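Supplementary Methods S3. Input chains for the assembly prediction are listed below.
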Amino acid sequence: MSSLSAPGFPEEHVRARARGGTAAVFPDPAGYGTRLYGPAPAAPADALDRARIVPPVFMPERLGKLIDLAREPEFSDVGLTTSVGGFTARLPLYLSAFGSTRAGSGDLAVHAARQAARLGIPMVIGENMVPVHGYRRAGDAVRSALSARIDAYLAEVPDGCGGIVVQQSTEDADSEVWNLLYSDPAFRPLLETGRLAFELKTGQGAKPGLGGMTVVDRAEAEQLARRFTVRDVFGEDSAHRLRCATPGTFTDEILRQQLRFMRNNFPKARTWVKFHPGRDVDRAARAAWAAGADAVTVDGAEGGTGWAPGVFLDQVGLPLAECLRRIGRPDGCLLATGGIWEGGRALRALALGARAVGLGRAALVAVDEDPDHGLERLAEALALELRLLVSALGKYATTALGPEDLWWPDGSFAAPAHPADDGTGHPAAVTTAPGEAARPAGGAV
Amino acid sequence: MDQHPAPGAPATPPPLGEHLRSPRLRAAMLVQQEALYAARAYLRGEGFTELLPPLVGPVTDPGGRGAKALDVDYYGHPYKLMTSAILYKQASLHGFPRLFYIAPNVRVEPEETAGTGRHLVEFHQIDVEIADASREDAQEIAAGLLTHVTEHVWTAVPGILTGLGRAETDFADVRAGKYDVHTHEEAVARLLAAGHPQNPDGEIDWAGERLLSLESDRAFFVNDYPKGSRGFYDREDPDNPGVLRNFDLIAPHGFGELVSGSEREADYATIVTRMRESGENPAKYAWYLKEARDGIPASAGFGMGLQRLVRFLTGLDALWQVSAYPKLPGVVAP
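Predicted structure tokens for the full assembly:
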């Protein structure tokens, strides 16, 4: 029984995986022996999905693995444990931020937190949770929405992996969210095990350049009006109001100083940064790494979950593939989000330099389908596909992937003439498409 | 961070009644009384006016190093108890170009500072601000204040100080007005050379500060902290971007920081930008920014920790021993 829908997102596929797990990776076995299989007709796809994943014939890395194992390697020999923004993650995945919308901050988020913990992957908690939903104060018996997610995560996360990442936006800064958490004794175990990070959020894929937006009723609107701008955009008679947060103002220097501020004031917490798919995302990412960010997240324009104006959803921001192309070889840990739900798209993002990919809408739909195990099954299906694909490419770790593993039919994301064989597994460079003006190094377009 | 108690310091105070009856506290309070008397006399003699500071406001010093402000409900508005009245000091300069407070402050310091011997949740500052002054002007007043207070206390109650184990030689340099000066960069280099992992972009951490203080026989200034390590109101050096025109005054023999101060940023647009750089929402500071837009005088100033000063004078191990009503970070006390 579902209460959530995600138009434009492969919701039914995600629900099938949340129910069936790894079985949903394959065709229905009932048809085995009586049905001939081939590619499905091409569906509309963004640039990332248009890339074919292209295994080579000759596989020196498989030979290396064979020598190591003294037997032929199998897909199950692919290791998926990786380092994500200073945390150990058992899969190259993390749970994306949902924020303070009704869909993103209720019970579904708590179920998602619990399952992300069991999977041993990091969880990001979005902005505006404290100004909207409050925080445990002295004498309060009820824990806040934020605390509920953290408690659920901590109750299930295995030792030695995972981590919690908490965003802070402008309005959160008024509430001193990071300060509250950093000095809350409940967080001491996380700090002592190096599993707390703070994420400076500069924007989001669904609405680049805008702050968080939620729909609230009149009573809520009055309550929130002191902390947020509340607008009457749905008509005077409507029971609904639009609550807007500010996006925050960033320049090179503001970003650099805010990161320094975070590291100076919260030295035991990791420092993450999230960017919207802006045209200068490459410059921004480099500035963040240079300032010591442990992870840089790029949320492509395909990203979602949040409430956003239609014109932004349809017309604003760079697609994830273009963000990754512009960033090229990352200087540090790069994380990518935007319409990720299965192994192929995840692998393409990893091949273009991401260390891990975030699950946002997919995670919410999966826990909506099955609050107890939906996200786990979805992630297990994705992990199986990744193992199959990575081994097919003759590699055995996701960090070994590179742009040579991808091919675009229209050539728009052509891999470099000499694929990155420098041992890093990261792209040495991604060439400019034919006919596309070469960008000056480091310059924004 | 230093999580070890200062040598010889009991970790926590006894029950309050017992603490208030102790002869050691009585001695410390007599020293404090003389120190306050001398501080007021010195500053008034230098042309300063004493104001009484505000206790609550819509904003306070945003602080750092994990210290939090306490919230209070002020007719339905979320107000803060002052962690420092620095913004009010700046705003007061129009009417009072040389002013000081003996200011109570509340800072909910992180629990790991309970054992430093140098942190209390409630404490007082001798808070000084000087219009049209440079860092060097402020340092001269800070040094003069310390010299004068020390001279007075040693002269007024020598028996109490010697009874607590202090000797005349402990104060010779301070009474003679001899101070060393280092830059933050030099202090970081010394700490790194000594094997202490000091972050070059940040404040000198507690342990590092203690090391520097222990190594030194003479009080010293540390100048030029990097931008990002201190509040938005510390002025950036126009000739040396990324470096602040600020300072600390560190006592010798392990007693650590007594004073933090700086030239202040008075340019409206720069203040707003610096607020953003420290992650702040300028809207919170509406009243202060209105003053800044209308024109706040350029100034320099500092805060001298009163309990830290008394601890230095008495030679006691921990700040709680020189506070009548001590509240240690993370320790719930009456």
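The radius of gyration of chain A is 22 Å. The longest strand of chain A covers residues 196-201.
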